[in-house]
Write a structure and sequence with these properties.
The structure holds two protein chains of two kinds.
Chain A: E1 3-10, E2 22-29, E3 34-38, H1 45-49, E4 60-65, E5 68-69, H2 77-83, E6 84-87, H3 100-110, H4 115-128, H5 133-136, H6 146-158, E7 164-168, H7 176-191, E8 195-199, H8 203-209, E9 212-217, E10 220-225, H9 227-230, H10 234-239, H11 246-256, H12 268-276
Helix pairs in contact in A: 3-4, 3-6, 4-6
Chain B: E1 2-12, E2 19-30, E3 35-39, H1 46-53, E4 61-66, E5 69-70, H2 77-83, E6 84-87, H3 100-111, H4 115-128, H5 144-157, E7 162-166, H6 174-191, E8 201-205, E9 217-222, E10 225-230, H7 232-235, H8 239-244, H9 251-263, H10 267-273
Parallel strand pairs in B: 3-8, 3-9, 6-7, 7-8
Antiparallel strand pairs in B: 1-2, 1-4, 4-5, 9-10
Helix pairs in contact in B: 3-4, 3-5, 4-5, 5-6
The chains are: A alpha/beta, B alpha/beta.
Amino acid sequence: MKIRFEELSFKYDNTPVQRNVLESLNFEILEHDFVGIIGASGSGKTTLIQHFTGLLQPSSGRVLIDGQELNSAGMDLGDLRTRIGIVFQFPESQLFEETVYADVAFGPQNMGLSEAEVHDRVEESLRLVGLDADHFSKRSPFHLSEGEKRRVAIAGVIAMNPDVLILDEPTACLDPEGIRIIEEILRGLHRLGKQIIIVSHHMDFVVRLCNRIIVLQNGKLIYDGDKKSIFNQTRMLNRANILLPRVLQVIKRLFDHGVIENSDIFTASELRKVLTA
Amino acid sequence: MIQLNQVSFEYKNDEGNLSELALDGINLEIREGEFIAVMGRNGSGKSTFARCLNALLVPTAGEVIVDHMLTSDRDNLIEIRRKVGMVFQNPDNQIVSTTVEREIAFGLENLGVSTPVMHEVVEGTLRRFRLEEYRKHPPHLLSGGEKQRLALAAVMAMNPKYIVFDEPTAMLDPISQQELLNILYDIKSENLKKKTTDQITIIFITQFPEETLRSDRVLILNKGRIAFDDRPEYVFQNIKEIRNMGLDVPIESEIKKMLVEYKGLSLEEVDELFHGL
């Protein structure tokens, strides 16, 4: 699915803040994209997400889904929201059913699928987030660990079988093991052909996963490109109030002091390989 | 001093009978003026541990003693809560007032502090936490980082002897995270200029290993028990064990070790290389 933002601006009505929260955004999400959207708090990340499925209407400009304008008469928003799945921040706070099964089944049931199809979708979604359906289906989502709750919430979105999955701060408040699991899940979904968009200020995580990075500052897009070139732009990152991830600070330090010769490594595991080679 | 003697805590599960041990026979002494960082994966008992320190929870076995006062004795409750302040992960859960200055004054009013003294403390606190320009603002209009600063300001205004932080940086963006961390470590350096009896003891729970590097002591909880309790540089030597507990070590600890092992650098050279990072 191609999602194109054209000159999109947005400001909230009836608030004291009368500036544009998003300003003249132009970009396109392509098939197979694995995009990280980063930016400091208040840069407009979460507001941006809500424009992907028409949860917010642009004040000016437009969003095109495969060439069709999102707010046009012919656009079926209900259908669009099954094709673009959004996992909001702390999605576990939206779990509400008595069992894990019922919670994950909620979306596909609303789509009017047969019980047999719903069943398959639930099992498949739980499998994709690494939860054993036999073990978890009948349990209450409220008595799972934080990481498991989040995975159930993600499964609930995957169960609608979207082409595009958008996640807002998927790692917030998880421990390193929980973060690693989410990372694996997202890699797996991307391999299955899903387009994935992660919104996060956890930069290490974004850099490990994504092949394309978009940087927002005060509602403006100030960078859109691959991760290889982004880290040479320290000045741009400073301007956007973004701290270089710890691992990259270490890599930069080693490179500047001539301990390593490679400046094109981005993750701890790449650094380990270089040092032990 | 806070002493924990054979402290265990059991939660009741859904059925109300079977139970799980969140803390399992903890023995610990927290000394005046110490800065203790506590790590552990989700579900390791960190929050239960924190809540036992100011009698929000009373251990189901063993005892917690705050400056000679048993937390299980209801008569000590007010005095213990005054001595042991708490800052939680989500400031929204602890901020109660309608303006920033009222929030800071709230605890003092409850303590029956006289108006002139209260005024002085509120002014000093607003200044110290750079909240002066927001004094009349409703707290919910502050950013996440500012709210967390306010939560801490309100606790500090009560002049506690101990402050327990339960993952205060988990929900913050990297810049606000850094700011809060600097405030915490400033408290630690100010301690050096004070008499032992006036020092503030900090118990800082976090999921981010690099945040613990400047602490006096790192405590790692695993399955309700203390797995490590030592200075950070010693604790983080145990890379494999810590990873097996679902946690991580600071990237620099790991890379320093590798530089010594694979690149033949001396410990001094390595420290020099990372100086000021």
